[in-house]
């Protein structure tokens, strides 16, 4: 079967069994705890905690996915960055027995025989999945293997969410289908609680299914790579890497990503620059040869209408990024290859790759790698790509030390300008790359104090902070509350914060003993360990007697001096993240 036929058959199989077909969501997820959509269940994540919101109790989808965790393995038999995930999902509609039977029956409908399956062996946190073991036995599967948490306990996507034991199906030695039984919710503090509604989440890579059903040895021999690309398959491993990265770039741009230096845009830029390096090292500079390959992807993947709609934009974005980078790349490559002529010789003689004797192999020092990174923009990825072609390697550990040393120097400069606040750049709560972003983060950090105070004023003093995460784009604030906020309550909170902004309250800091701060009623994060002396930030009008205090909170982060610097506060969304915990995402304009 072609990949198109496999997609159709999968959707129809589950539609006939009471599943609603749901289209793929964007590669840019609603879940801001992850940069890109990495799994089919991501768009359904909230339905495992709030099943009443689901479009149906049982759904089926084919989801576009993108992962960078295996980017260095791309080019072997089965690893990719972009792939399609076939999945069936249930939010209280059915559980283990039905899910396992569906999977076995669908594979048999393709004429495929299960080689063996795995189930979760259990550990000190979660018991052995005996139920799945017995179901497979009852279906006549003889080879049932037990595996640990690393292999057979999945999730969550991001730092928290639904998760549970899995059973995996193998055919011809390839992991084919992963069936997750969402029984638990992992909280931000890494503890688990039982979900009220049990759910099913399955994932099967279309590329691997095509490889097995089409009788191919690698995913790159399937129609998913042989049909769209005319030129690249002739270049062996280089061609595979180029095809994967080009396909991933096409889909990212179609979903609204543009090359940049942060978040999803950085991943796209990284992909395109790796394309430019590979293309250059196999003897090409012109982008024109890529256009038919891009068009091939767009035409062959007509299942995804957004590709054709964004065709001109896709070609333009890739072309612009490659041309922009080529100016830097040319100088950097020339200097790098001049320093390492043996690598240049191997690049120019591709048939001899891998033939150097061990005494000819080089380890590029971290100091050299960082020099080319800083001076010519050759990232560690690019340098690794270059040297790997000859079997050489890079001392990544010493590169990371050089990079860290550089960051410390840069941080010291920011500290000087921001009074020590630069130290907060890597705490995990605040995320900023430069001074401009740090200014935005400072506004967002301060407004988060106002948000907590407003929530307590509107919802009651039972509201306590349960976590936060602040980037240059938004603030995310988790708090204890046992129900969804009404639209009226959300508006009251938003209006109250903007009231405090409009009052042009001053922000003052006082140092005091931790116990004294608590006596004053200063808000604090109950999971945080505080030193004996703490900083308390107060927001209010200190010219009146007594002072009009809007917010009083323990903190050591960066703050504006006056709330008028914050700008207009806007709540983007609210959601549940666990039992008794709500989350608000907001920004300032």
Give your account of this protein's structure:
It is built from 18 helices and 18 strands. It has 589 residues and is an alpha+beta fold. Strands 1, 2, 3, 4, 5, 6, 7, 8 and 9 form a 9-stranded mixed sheet that branches. A 4-stranded antiparallel sheet has the order 12-13-18-17, with helices on one face. The chain has a 3-stranded antiparallel sheet with strand order 14-15-16. A hairpin with a 2-residue loop joins strand 7 and strand 8 (174-186). Helix 7 crosses helix 9 and helix 8 runs parallel beside helix 14 (380-388). The protein starts with a helix and ends with a strand. Mean pLDDT is 85; it is low at 350-359 and 413-433. It comes from Candidatus Giovannonibacteria bacterium GW2011_GWB1_44_23. Belongs to the class-II aminoacyl-tRNA synthetase family. GO terms for molecular function: alanine-tRNA ligase activity; aminoacyl-tRNA deacylase activity; ATP binding; tRNA binding. Residues 1-589 form the Alanyl-transfer RNA synthetases family profile domain.
Topology (elements, then pairings):
Elements: H1 3-15, E1 20-21, E2 58-66, E3 82-91, H2 96-109, E4 116-120, H3 130-138, E5 144-147, H4 149-152, E6 153-154, E7 161-171, E8 174-186, E9 192-205, H5 206-213, H6 223-226, H7 236-254, H8 263-281, H9 290-300, H10 306-309, H11 311-339, H12 341-348, E10 363-364, H13 366-376, H14 380-388, E11 393-394, H15 396-418, H16 435-459, E12 465-470, E13 475-480, H17 487-502, E14 506-513, H18 514-519, E15 533-541, E16 548-554, E17 569-578, E18 581-588
Parallel strand pairs: 1-2, 4-5, 10-11
Antiparallel strand pairs: 2-3, 3-9, 4-7, 6-7, 7-8, 8-9, 12-13, 13-18, 14-15, 15-16, 17-18
Helix pairs in contact: 7-8, 7-9, 7-11, 8-11, 8-14, 13-15, 16-17
């Amino acid at each position: 079967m072609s990949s198109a036929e496999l997609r159709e058959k999968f959707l129809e199989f589950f539609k006939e069994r009471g599943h609603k077909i749901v289209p793929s969501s964007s590669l840019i997820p609603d879940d801001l705890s992850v940069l890109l959509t990495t799994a089919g269940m991501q768009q359904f994540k909230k339905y495992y905690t709030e099943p009443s919101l689901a479009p149906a109790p049982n759904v089926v989808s084919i989801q576009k996915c993108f992962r960078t965790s295996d980017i260095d393995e791309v080019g072997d038999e089965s690893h990719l960055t972009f792939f399609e995930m076939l999945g069936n999902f249930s939010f209280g509609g059915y559980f283990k027995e039905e899910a396992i039977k569906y999977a076995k029956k669908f594979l048999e409908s393709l004429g495929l025989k299960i080689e063996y399956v795995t189930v979760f062996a259990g550990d000190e946190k979660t018991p052995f999945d005996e139920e799945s073991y017995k179901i497979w036995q009852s279906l006549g599967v003889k080879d049932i293997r037990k595996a640990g948490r690393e292999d057979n306990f999945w999730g969550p996507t991001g730092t928290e969410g639904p998760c549970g034991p899995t059973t995996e199906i193998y055919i011809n030695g390839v992991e084919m289908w992963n069936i997750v039984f969402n029984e638990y919710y992992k909280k931000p503090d890494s503890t688990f609680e039982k979900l009220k509604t049990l759910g099913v989440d399955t994932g099967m890579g279309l590329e691997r299914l095509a490889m097995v059903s089409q009788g191919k040895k690698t995913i790159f021999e399937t129609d998913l790579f042989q049909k769209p690309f005319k030129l690249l398959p002739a270049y062996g491993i280089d061609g595979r890497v180029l095809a994967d990265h080009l396909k991933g770039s096409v889909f990212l741009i179609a979903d609204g990503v543009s090359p940049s230096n942060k978040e999803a845009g950085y991943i796209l830029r990284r992909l395109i620059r790796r394309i430019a390096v590979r293309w250059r090292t196999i003897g090409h500079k012109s982008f024109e040869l890529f256009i038919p390959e891009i068009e091939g992807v767009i035409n062959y993947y007509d299942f995804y209408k957004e590709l054709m709609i964004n065709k001109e934009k896709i070609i333009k974005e890739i072309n612009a990024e490659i041309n922009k980078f080529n100016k830097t790349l040319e100088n950097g490559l020339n200097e790098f290859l001049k320093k390492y002529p043996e690598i240049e010789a191997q690049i120019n003689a591709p048939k001899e790759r891998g033939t150097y004797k061990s005494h000819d192999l080089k380890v590029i020092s971290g100091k050299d790698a960082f020099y080319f990174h800083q001076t010519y923009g050759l990232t560690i990825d690019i340098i690794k790509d270059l040297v790997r072609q000859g079997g050489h390697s890079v001392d990544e550990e010493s590169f990371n030390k050089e990079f860290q040393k550089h960051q410390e120097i840069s941080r010291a400069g920011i500290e000087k300008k921001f009074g020590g606040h630069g130290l907060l750049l890597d705490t995990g709560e605040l995320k900023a790359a430069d001074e401009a972003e740090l200014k935005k983060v400072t506004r967002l950090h301060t407004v988060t104090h106002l948000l907590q105070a407003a929530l307590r004023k509107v919802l009651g003093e039972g509201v306590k902070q349960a976590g936060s995460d602040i980037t240059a784009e938004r603030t995310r604030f988790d708090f204890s509350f046992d129900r969804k906020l009404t639209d009226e309550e959300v508006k009251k909170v938003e209006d109250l914060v903007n009231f405090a902004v409009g009052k042009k309250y001053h922000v003052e800091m006082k140092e005091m003993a931790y116990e004294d701060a608590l006596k004053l009623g200063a808000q604090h994060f109950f999971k945080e360990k505080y030193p004996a002396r703490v900083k308390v930030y107060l927001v209010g009008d200190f010219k009146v007697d007594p002072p009009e205090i809007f917010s009083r909170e323990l903190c050591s982060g960066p703050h504006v001096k006056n709330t008028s610097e914050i700008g207009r506060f806007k709540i983007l969304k609210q959601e549940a993240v666990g039992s008794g915990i709500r989350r608000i995402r907001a920004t300032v304009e």
